[in-house]
Amino acid sequence: MITSARGLADLITELEPHGRVAVDTEADSLHCYREKLCLLQISVPGHDVIVDPLADVDLAPLGDVLVKKEIVLHGSDYDLRLLRRNMSFVPERIFDTVIGARMIGIHEFSLAALVKRYFDIELAKGSQKANWAQRPLSARMAEYAINDTRYLLSLAERLEAELNSRNRMEWFRQSCQRALDFSAIDRERDVDEAWRISGAGALRGRASAVLRELWNWREREAEAVDRPPFHILQNRELLDSAQRFAAGESPDYKHFSDRRRRAFREAADRALRLPEKDWPIRPKRSGTRPTAEVIKRIEKLRHNRDHAAKELQIEASFIAARVALEAIASEPSRAESLLVPWQRELLGVN
User: What is the structure's pLDDT at 28?
Assistant: First the structure.
């Protein structure tokens, strides 16, 4: 566990000769309001370490050396976003083992499944929901964390050999670059619509207004105490409360403090006082029914995709998802933004 500038300097020296480095992250998203990077696991041949981002150590020098390497990750999107937000680190090249596995037709592509497949090793389970911000880290948690990178380099070598044998390495590189590009795009939450949690569509009128206000109250409470919103009130309780307040009842929860209970009821009262014109408007369904010509293009694209998937023995959805086919059929110019060259070639939309 590297917690000092000296330890980090030694690690950087260890990394220098290697062109490929395995990386994984652990974050604390189940125990705090804003997700934070808690662990950074790194492996090179013969050397597995955990860097502690919560220690008082400047990680910028580590980012400077890693940016020159090919970074091996398993399912890169989440890790890349976390590293960019917390370390301002964006690698130049990645090797995503999930993409590699799917590219050669493997359907069970979890890390545990791949490690079992290639090395006949069973990875331990049970720490996915652990509090990674806790210190000291237990031996079990440390073992679980380091296992996420321990086998990645060997796995990358196996996948690379199979990709080359199938002449799909260029396809793989295109898809990894697309994953890298997408990870740099911020996903902004629509604050005006974020309150529409699962089940919100069943609420009408005043109850919908109450739900919106209670959701905003919950966000403020969660941020104030640095806890996930579900620690304050779960979604099903939020929906039930909105319906009950709208029906004239006054729901209560034993775990609320007097202050929180008061704020909870005040939020509902604000919504109940709103005039009908200020109640949420149910969003209209977007889009129109596709024309016969568009449907014909969708079917042609689907036929091309499924035929290619069968020949290549890879999942059809890995070539192109249904929504992508529909979007391209409706607007062919979108093909370039939705698909990489090898996918467009197989669909016949180049």
Answer: 86
Check: CB of residue 71 under 8 Å from CB of residue 19: no
What is the distance, to the nearest Å, from the Cα of residue 245 to the centroid of all Cα atoms in its chain?
35
Span 298-322, mean pLDDT? 98
Total-model pTM = 0.88
Main-chain phi, psi angles of 195, to 5 degrees: -70, -10
pLDDT of amino acid 224: 95
For the chain, give the number of residues: 350
Report the distance separating Cα 298 and Cα 291, nearest Å: 11
Q: Burial level of 52, CB count in 10 A (0-12/13-18/19+)?
A: buried
In this prediction, residue 189 has a pLDDT band, given cuts at 50, 70 and 90, of low
Tell me which long-range contacts 143-149 makes (C-beta under 8 A, separation of at least 24).
145/24, 145/26, 145/39, 145/41, 145/50, 146/41, 146/43, 146/48, 146/49, 146/50, 147/123, 148/24, 148/41, 148/74, 148/111, 149/22, 149/23, 149/24, 149/41, 149/42, 149/43, 149/48, 149/72
SS3 of residue 149 by DSSP: helix
How far apart CA 272 and CA 279 sit, in angstroms, is 10
Distances in whole angstroms, Cα of residue 242 to Cα of each of 5, 232, 249, 261, 346: 51, 15, 10, 14, 50
Tell me phi and psi for residue 73, to 5 degrees.
-135, 160
Among 150, 124, 154, 149, CA closest to 139: 124
**40, 54, 58, 62, 146 from 87: Cα distances, Å:** 11, 12, 9, 10, 20
Q: Is the pLDDT of residue 129 over 90?
A: no
The region of weakest confidence among 35-49, 91-105, 174-188, 263-277 is 174-188
Q: Whole-angstrom Cα distance, residue 194 to residue 215? A: 9
Residue 65 to residue 42: CA distance in whole angstroms: 13
3-state secondary structure of 317: helix
Query: Does the pLDDT value for residue 105 go beyond 70?
Result: yes
